[in-house]
Amino acid sequence: MYRVHLTDEQRAELKRRAHAPDVMPRTRDRLEMVRLADAGWSIPKIARHLQISEVRVRHWVKQFLAGGFDALPDAPHPGQQSALTPAILSAVAAAIRESGRTWSAQQVADWVAEHHGVRRSMEQVRERLRLARLSYKRTTRSLKHKQDPQQVEEAHAVLQVLEKGGRGSD
User: Fold this and answer.
1) How far is CA 110 from CA 92, 99, 119, in A?
2) Please, are residues 129 and 135 in contact by the beta-carbon 8 Å criterion?
3) Mutual angle of helices 43-50 and 25-38, in 10-degree steps
């Protein structure tokens, strides 16, 4: 039988952590397990109330008793680090900034492969750029870069004359 007896300070800490805006839902459930155990609820009753197994409730109550509140959040998930390192992403940002041209995700992926020897798909590069909050200039359907400014000005002048019902509008 696992008994949880919290002090007033611990109850205040539990309440603060449970109502924090960035707390993960599973961590909030674990804090609720501790709160209910402190209120005198049995492990089976907590499990029924939260609709999880008694084994999980018992595990997290034991974790709390052994390590306190810091034992309840999820540990970082191990995994393979991305080949697109922060150094490569900074080089990409600098290249985009300095080039002054439009880029597509495929062009960024090709540039990374050429300059850093890391080949990733366009989707992977796009996702990594999004996660790193790097924006690249996407190609749009505009032809503005191909227009002659003098011809554009002349066309605007002709349009203004036509809109006003001026000479030659018949």
Assistant:
1) 11, 15, 8
2) yes
3) 140
pTM: 0.49
Which tokens go with 149?
Answer: 């400014």
- Measured distance CA(83)–CA(104) in Å, rounded: 20
Report residues of the chain scoring pLDDT below 50. Answer: 169-170
- Cα 96 to Cα 108: distance, rounded to the nearest angstrom: 9
Neighbouring C-alpha atoms within 13 Å toward the C-beta of 49: 14
Token pair of 101 as six digits: 């041209």
Estimate the share of the chain in helix, then strand, then coil, as percent rounded to the nearest 5.
60, 0, 40
Which domains does the chain show, CATH number per domain? Answer: 8-71 (1.10.10), 85-165 (1.10.10)
Among residues of the chain, what percentage have pLDDT more than 90? 50
For residues 63 and 76, what is the distance between their CA atoms, to the nearest angstrom? 16
Helices 122-131, 86-99: inter-axial angle, 10-degree rounding = 90
How far apart CA 145 and CA 119 sit, in angstroms, is: 30
Task: Name the residue type at position 2.
Answer: Y
